Amino acid sequence: xxxxxxxxDVLVGSTSAEQSYSFEGSNLTDPIVVTAQTxxxxxxxxxxxxxxxxxxxxxxxxxxxxxxxxxxxxxxxxLNSNSINHTSTGATPVTVTVSGxxxxxxxxxxxxxxxxxxxxxxxxxxTSSAGASYLWSNSETTQSITVSSxxxxxxxxxxxxxxxxxxxxxx
Length: 171
Description:
By secondary structure, the chain is an all-beta fold. The chain is about 0% helix and about 45% strand. The chain is built from no helices and 15 strands.
């Protein structure tokens, strides 16, 4: 059994950077089948051809040193420690352990700087939780906005690290 370092945090629905390792085999009568478990994919080609399983046929009973590329595509949040299995009839199975953590974007929050009900001529400052960039439902692009008319306001925040999420409305 071998292990690859954790790929770290990966946004659900995204794909991690790839990692690689090599294997070889001798005295084989059948192909080596390489099978990735849930949320992992493998390929013989860097950057393309990823799938959950492939096989490598021996030549004269031997599989030469073969590089496997691995990436993580989380479908849910949380730690995912899993394996890539290598099997061939009559051969000792080999497992490579892999791990990563699926993450989700946190929804931004809006904090009013005073009462959200006010009379004509009044206003309130609405402030978004921190992020790298902001887009309010009224097209403003700053962390805080001053509103002088009642209504429903939302903000979409990009954290600069791949997460973009929209707040619940504030009235």
